[in-house]
Amino acid sequence: MSTWAVPGYAESRELGSGASGRVALAVHEGTGLPVAVKYLSESLRTRPGFVREFRAEARLLGGLRSAHVAGLYEYVESPDGAAIVMELVDGVSLRTLLGREAPLAPEAALVLLKGSLLGLADAHRIGVVHRDYKPENVLVRPDGTSKLVDFGIAAADGTTAGIAGTPSYMAPEQWTGAPASPAADVYAATATFFECLTGRKPYTGENLAELALQHVDGPIPADEAPEPVRALVRRGLAKAPGQRPADAEDFVAELEATAGGAYGPDWEERGRGRLAALAALSLLLLPHSPVKPRDSVTDTARTVLGRTPDVLRAWRPGGRSLLVSAAAIVAALLLTYGIDRQAPGFGAPGQAAQALATTSARPDGTGGLPVTADPDSPTPSASSSHSAVPTVSASAATSTDDITTPTPSSASTTASVAPPTTSAPTTTAPTTTSPSPEVGVKSVVFGGFRQTGTATATASVTVTTDGTGPVDITVTWSTGDTSGQAGAQDGAADSYRRSGSTEYTIALDQTFQGAGCYWGVRAGTQPVSADGGASQQLLTRRCTLR
Question: Which listed site, 172, 294, 377, 397, has its alpha carbon 20 to 30 Å from 159?
Fold first, then answer.
């Protein structure tokens, strides 16, 4: 088993391990900052599909800035291993809280739902759908606030990404492989909200086919929830996506109006206080496990299937829902056997870079630890409550508890951390002295360009090359008053040099000095990209079109 560790970090102990890897508590040697490092297991690192997803998650998180989502500091990959360096969240998983005390008081459940919806809303604003919201992926902190984690199977809004998710929380449209949409995240968040209110999942089938039919055509069990919030449950668990709030931000407005009217203006303070007490108690009761040997990580990807709670037996499917049975069986097969999927056109792991490829991620908007990203496409995230929760592929279609499609994420983590304060873009020197191979730049693509404040914006840029030789990337920002035309350059250009990979994603932040209605960002490369570089423009919220 590999003993590879991320260079520049001193590991202190293991926080959790699971089928697809492990999460370790570590300290950044340069700053003394405590972090969570999530390692992809050695067995999955040799499977291109899993490595590709691990990178994709890192790229996604690099462009997501949210106080309600655990932040990414660094993604590192070398021929010896792959890891994501994440914010260490001081907290405990919602699943642990529900295991100790369920149901929760309505105010506490509403606070949890609001915090999660705010995190989902930040993802939805940049076109990202989580697709695997569930209690294991919500961390509750000692102050009663929460953070959303694990974007391992997230997808772009509107893309057809196949059947994926955890069946107990999957929206009806997810069972048929419909395109990803924010409405599916709203459904999953409401299913979790229902579980917080009642102590059980909204639907519990004996197998995947029965569970699918219940989600698609079963009655919404809103009457089991407290009367004041039943309308929220009905809205969020509506069968058709169009009958639910369009996205998480819309649902927050409905939630606040309902909560204030039913429980008074101080509902949030009371609910947060209750959650704080539960989280603090749970953290005290958690075992302080020593570092485990690295060979304890499972070397095959599988799902540990739990026992299902009481089954709903009174409901009978209608004629329409019988058509879903075949889709549910297909879903079971995909969930069961999708584990060995390969990414088309992806090279062998041995052809990966001989050196780490590093980009700088700045989750706090002022700078951060160097963030590393490498060849093809990524997908990872870290979270945890000192225990790992394996969530990879289903090994049987006869049980329905917590089954997810193959995803490199497995463990969640905890511990408080302030954002790092490293400045300016940084570069990691290659670890080999052999001559740098020639490289051609195939494309430059921007993603997630959005306004984050009155004068601030964030974006990410992805550069794809046909070799692992060095490439220089220059990013410039501009402001202006005309749509479609480049404005005046705003501030100094940022320059980055990358090598050792065939794909680099850089998280970008800018504080604008100009007063134009339009903000722009442009990236060019040397060698010059085949597409000539890329640029994007957005209309700021401080200006209104007439």
Answer: 397
Looking at the DSSP bridge assignments, the partners of residue 11 are 26
Instruction: Please tell me whether residues 102 and 230 are part of one structural domain.
Output: yes
Distance (Å, whole) CA 150 – CA 21: 13
Q: Could you tell me how many residues make up the chain?
A: 546
Q: Does residue 506 lie in a domain region?
A: yes
| Rounded Cα gap, residues 456 and 1, in angstroms | 45
Query: What pLDDT band is residue 477 in, cutting at 50, 70 and 90?
Result: very high
Residue 404 forms part of a structural domain: no
Q: Kindly provide the residue ranges of all beta strands, DSSP E only, lying in 268-418, ordered along the sequence.
A: 358-360, 370-372, 384-388, 411-413
For the annotated catalytic residues, the residue numbers are: 132
Q: Report the percent of the chain where pLDDT is more than 70.
A: 70
Q: Using alpha carbons only, what angle is made at residue 55 by residues 155 and 11, rounded to the nearest 5 degrees? A: 125
Is the pTM of the predicted complex or chain greater than 0.70? no
Residue range(s) defining the domain that contains residue 119: 92-287+314-334
Q: DSSP state, 69?
A: B
What does the buried/exposed string (b/e) look like for 309-329 if buried means 16 or more CB atoms within 10 Å of the residue's CB?
A: eeebeeeebeeebeebeebbe
Please give the distance of CA 115 from its chain centroid, rounded to a whole number.
15
- Please state whether beta strands 503-511 and 534-539 pair in parallel, antiparallel, or not at all (unpaired): unpaired
The contacts of residue 261 (CB under 8 Å, 6+ apart) are 228
CA distance linking residue 316 with residue 112, whole number of Å: 33
Distances (CA, A) of 157 to 162, 184, 457: 13, 10, 21
The total number of structural domains that make up the chain: 2
- Asked if residue 329 and residue 477 are part of one domain, the reply reads no
Report the range of poorest mean pLDDT among 34-43, 73-82, 253-262, 293-302. Answer: 293-302
Q: How far is the C-alpha of 460 from the C-alpha of 282, rounded, in Å?
A: 37
Task: Tell me, yes or no, whether 519 lies in a domain.
Answer: yes
Convert the pLDDT of each residue in 155-182 to its tens digit.
Answer: 888 887 678 889 999 999 999 888 889 9
| CATH code: domain of residue 474 | 2.60.40.10
Quote the CA–CA distance of 138 and 155 in Å, as a whole number. Answer: 19
Contact present, 450 and 536 (Cβ < 8 Å):
no
Q: Strand 21-28 and strand 9-18: pairing? A: antiparallel
